[in-house]
């Protein structure tokens, strides 16, 4: 499965301009034989944990444009947006298939409370998987990387890769690489982090998009510039790594929580 990661800066709070800007990335990924091209968190607007602008449903203009571009260029597209609900919006990642159909949605489960995202957005409650290019793939968003329990759910669900669109700030970029490589290594999956770059009214971002393989090795590591990078994800390689180093088989789920022993 050929994956393209588009490390781009959004045109702030201007979805139409951003989608026009990223169309050449989609075209290049299609010409390069890509199965899927991925964009950062809330790529059409820029990530803002407090913004209620451009909140829309799955039939809104952002997803409609993604579907049209996917069909025009015959390539899958992944990106997140602000999804309308009956209460607060959700930070939702959508995957559109190469024929323009919506094939998966995932709403961010862990909201970034240090920036008050939990006060302005509703959290998701379920994992989401989809199949493409012979791979079973899971979805996470940015802050989700810090929570190993989510990735364990995906590993137990049988995925071979997890894709993570993000707006991960420059100040904590060393954590970004640490978590991507750790999640890949501990669950023997590919983990792709697609980060934004540049300065926004919220923070400063320095890219660093990367893909780690099931051994924790990096297939690529972007700098801070806007760039489109690709790599191959191999289901058989995942199976070979797991067979040679059977961590899941050796895992124990029967351990009891610590209880202080009372002295007689």
Give a verbal description of the structure.
Helix 1 runs parallel beside helix 2. Strand 7 (135-139), helix 4 (148-156) and strand 8 form a beta-alpha-beta unit. The chain is α/β, with parallel strands linked by helices. The chain is globular. The strands form three sheets. Strands 5-4-3-2-1-14 form a six-stranded mixed sheet. The chain has a six-stranded mixed sheet with strand order 6-7-8-9-12-13, covered by helices on one side. The protein has a two-stranded antiparallel sheet with strand order 10-11. The chain has helices at residues 15-31, 61-73, 117-120, 148-156, 173-187, 235-244, 247-250; strands at 2-7, 36-38, 76-83, 90-96, 102-107, 129-132, 135-139, 161-166, 190-195, 197-199, 204-206, 210-212, 218-221, 227-232. The protein has one domain (2-247): Carbon-nitrogen hydrolase (Nitrilase/N-carbamoyl-D-aminoacid amidohydrolase), CATH 3.60.110.
Write the CATH homologous superfamily: Carbon-nitrogen hydrolase
Total strand count, please? Answer: 14
* Estimated share of beta-strand residues: 25-35%
CATH class: Alpha Beta
Low-pLDDT regions: none
Helix content: 25-40%
Count of domains: 1
Summarize the main sheet.
Answer: 6 strands, mixed
Mean pLDDT: 96
The succession of helices and strands, N to C, reads EHEHEEEHEEHEHEEEEEEHH
Under CATH, the topology is which? Nitrilase/N-carbamoyl-D-aminoacid amidohydrolase
Strand order in space, largest sheet:
5-4-3-2-1-14
Shape: globular
Radius of gyration: 18 Å
Q: Which structural class should the secondary elements be placed in?
A: alpha/beta
**What is the helix tally?**
7
CATH architecture: 4-Layer Sandwich
Question: In angstroms, what separates the terminal alpha carbons?
Answer: 62 Å
């Amino acid at each position: 499965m050929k994956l393209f990661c588009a490390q781009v800066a959004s045109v702030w709070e201007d979805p139409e301009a951003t989608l026009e800007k990223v169309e050449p990335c989609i075209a290049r990924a299609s010409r390069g034989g890509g199965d899927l091209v991925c964009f950062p968190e809330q790529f059409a607007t820029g990530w803002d944990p407090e913004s209620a602008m451009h909140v829309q449903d799955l039939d809104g203009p952002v997803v409609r444009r993604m579907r049209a571009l996917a069909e025009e260029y015959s390539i899958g597209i992944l990106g997140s947006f602000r999804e309308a609900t009956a209460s607060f919006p959700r930070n939702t990642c959508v995957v559109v298939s190469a024929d323009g159909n919506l094939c998966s949605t995932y709403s961010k489960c862990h909201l970034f409370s240090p920036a008050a995202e939990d006060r302005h957005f509703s959290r998701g409650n379920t994992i989401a998987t989809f199949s493409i290019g012979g791979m079973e793939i899971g979805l996470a968003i940015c802050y989700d990387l810090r929570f190993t329990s989510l990735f364990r759910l995906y590993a137990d669900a049988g995925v071979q890769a997890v894709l993570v669109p993000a707006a991960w700030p420059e100040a904590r970029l060393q954590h970004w690489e640490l978590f991507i490589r750790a999640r890949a290594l501990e669950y023997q999956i590919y983990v792709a982090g697609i980060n934004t770059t540049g300065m926004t009214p919220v923070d400063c971002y320095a890219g660093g998009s990367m893909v780690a393989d099931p051994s924790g090795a990096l297939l690529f590591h972007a700098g801070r510039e806007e760039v489109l990078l690709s790599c191959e994800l191999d289901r058989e390689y995942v199976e070979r790594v797991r067979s040679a180093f059977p961590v899941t088989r050796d895992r124990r789920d029967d351990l009891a929580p610590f209880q202080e022993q009372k002295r007689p």
